[in-house]
Amino acid sequence: MNRLLNSGKFWLKIVFFSLLASFLMFVSLYASVYHFLSADRIHQFAQESLGRTERSIRFDKSITRNLFPRPTITLKNLIISRPRSTDTAIHIREIKIGLAWQSLWTDGPVIEKWVVSGADATLQRTQDGKWSLQDIWQQQSRNANLNRLIIENSSLRLRLINGEYLIEQFGLNTKAPDSGTREFSVSGNFNHSTIPVSWQGSGLLETAPNGWKIPTFHLTGEGRLNDETIKVVADSALTWLPKQSSLQADNLALRADSSYHDFHLTAQVPRLTFNTDHVFVDTFNSAFTAGSEAEQWSGSLKLDKGKLLDGKALLESFKLNANHRTAQWQTNLSVSGPLVWQKTDGLKSDALHITTLQDTVNRAPRPRYISLLDGSFSMTDLRHWQGKFNGYFDRQPAALSFKYSNEAGEVPLFEAGLALQKLSLSPYWEDLEAQSGNIYPEFLNDDSLPNIEAQVKINNMNFPGLKLDNIETLISADRQHIAFTNFKAGLYGGQTEGGISMANTVPTSYHLQQNARGVQIRPLLQDLFGFHSFSGTGDAVIDLTSKGQDRRSLLQLLDGTLSLNVSNGAWHGLDMNNILQSGNIKKDTENNLQTPFHHFSLHSVIEKGVSRHINTELLSDSVRVISSGFTNLETQELSEELLIYNARNPDSRPVPLKIKGSVHNPSITLDYAQLTDGLETPQEKQKALEDTFREQWNWLMPKRK
């Protein structure tokens, strides 16, 4: 025996027969693999897997077969057609299927590893409302066990109602089952032009005869929007029922974070159901925060009983609460109501409820923007929407309507109608006064802003120290101009109509055109020019232009015309009768002196803030005054030359006066040079002065008969 073991021929035979047996086994295995994985059997197996879908399957004739580490076949360019067509529905660049060895001798094949590389498919709704690949995933699988499935470098196009989405670099990796569950991971990229997103998911998969469950599913997605980061994290339990084509997400918890204004959102959805023909959510609750050092946003959004069905979305109710806070103000907004969306008609709500409120922070309360509105809103698309509301603004009855249109090739237009019972600007006046520099509204400089046309009607409007009644106007606004055309209002006890416009220049330009009738002249002149020497009721025709950043610069560059026709008033600061009686011109230190009149007319031309007039006339029962001169509206300095006539004796010699200095406290003197013009001796000049005053005195105090 030992001699046999030590024999070289013996071992040579052993090696030879071992190699021969191995070769025969290899040939046998290869023959078995080739027979089991023949092209016909592979095609038959693949076609049977499609069942009654009426689809066909084809792949390249060249099939690669490998024995180790497991029997594996490689198919190239596998194509699954559309139903009853040869058009491609799914194209797979390469498929590798690795079988367990026992699969060669048993009826139930075991797939150890299935690798799909470079798949390209499109998922969309068909005319009957089903998904284009629904018939495939509803097929009952053959009696085959799958341990690992890997999908890599694939793409999926989702064609939904609101657009097409492309998932690239799609990957799926499932591990072998363990105690009835298997771990899996999934990933992909949304290469959207505006918001590119990469996402990854993982979970535990439980299979069942009627579907599968994912008791724990974790999904994260990260992207960028305008150089700002976005991260979304979702956790849920998923259930899939293929016969009902139903995917159900339970206890969905969502969190979104963005670097844009430090935005954070959390949301909870007890149950979200996706079916073939509808999507349903019973309740959606969310809260959000955002802000910076200068301002903070916070709020909540709640949705109840939402359904998407056959191109129509129904939301029984929603409620949005939002809060905006700065160092000075806190603003609250609430919007609630039902919503309906249809693919053909767009978004619509017939019962929207809106409330707003703004109040001070760390100061005495000063509530404003207090609104309570109910109405309707509809939006066919982002280029066409409109609304109509009634209710209260700042506790006063209000009505609002608006319409937006953006036609191709035209400038977008926003039209509105606003009616208010009463509007007080006192709560807003501090902010208006605090504005400096170019006061043209900043939001109108936005390139995307439409042209604005608003018809406004306000019964009563209060400014600090000013009241307007029955205001009607058409407001037109764009990047270049703001115009109040067909402006009508009750002003200073009378009526005014005309136009007001503002141009977006540097500095801002203004144009005021008004025709006022039956107004109180004194407050009108006070508000326009700071000039309050005349009172009475009358008419005013105003046409003024200017540009500037404050009242002073506006007065410096003021141009235009002013015409006054006043009745039953007084010239304050000057007592003509006293001058004629005694020749004594008193200083009006207490603003008690005045010259009553029954008519006063003036036409003034204003250039660079200087108002010039000639032949201005004042008539009273006792005097007739003709004046010419100028007033510097910016410095409030005037220079006037007056002739005072005897109203009952026009042929008598007039008394000439000069008025100079401050509008509020002028210097009034006799024009001695004009009164004694042509006279040489002091005696002649004295006599002329005495005769002039004697004539006026005799007229004012006639002798008794």
From TrEMBL:
TM segment ranges: 12-37
Residue stretches making up the AsmA domain: 12-615
GO biological process: regulation of protein targeting to membrane
Keyword Transmembrane (UniProt): yes
Pfam families the UniProt entry points to: AsmA
One annotated Gene Ontology cellular component of this protein: plasma membrane
Keyword field: Membrane, Transmembrane, Transmembrane helix
InterPro entries: AsmA, AsmA-related
Name of the protein in its database record: AsmA family protein
Organism of origin: Neisseria weixii
Taxonomic lineage from the root: Bacteria, Pseudomonadati, Pseudomonadota, Betaproteobacteria, Neisseriales
